[in-house]
Specification:
The protein is mostly beta strands. 0% of the residues lie in helices and 47% in strands.
């Protein structure tokens, strides 16, 4: 079985002085996991994606727009986005976050008993 392990993910990438950096941590037929870092004031304009996606914020603060709603993301914030949900990010302070894109109908989908947590 192939796996990826980072002892301290936050030390694996840094925030640029200016701009946006991304680093693919893992990519296969089922999932794409990318680490992003944004300098203060950067933004991703409103867009959508054809796959379900998860954002997990490790550092910093950003305004996240999900459809028509806007909310403040900070360390520990978790976002699940269904396919084609318009979303945008406006960075307030330097941010590190994970983007996890899941392909529909993944080949390695686990089967859990109905009462599993």
């Amino acid at each position: 079985m192939d796996y990826v392990f980072f002892g301290n993910l936050q030390q694996e990438f840094s925030v640029p002085d200016k701009g946006i950096l991304s680093r693919v941590l893992h990519k296969d037929a089922d999932v794409n996991i990318t680490a992003f870092s944004f300098s203060s004031g950067e933004e991703l304009s409103l867009h959508s994606a054809p796959t379900p996606a998860i954002l997990y914020f490790l550092e910093g603060e950003a305004e996240v727009q999900l459809g028509a709603e806007k909310m403040l993301a900070q360390p520990g914030s978790f976002v699940y986005m269904p396919p084609m949900l318009p979303h945008a990010i406006q960075v307030k302070s330097p941010v590190k976050m994970l983007l996890i894109q899941v392909r529909k109908g993944t080949s390695g989908a686990a089967s859990y008993p109905p009462n599993a947590v």
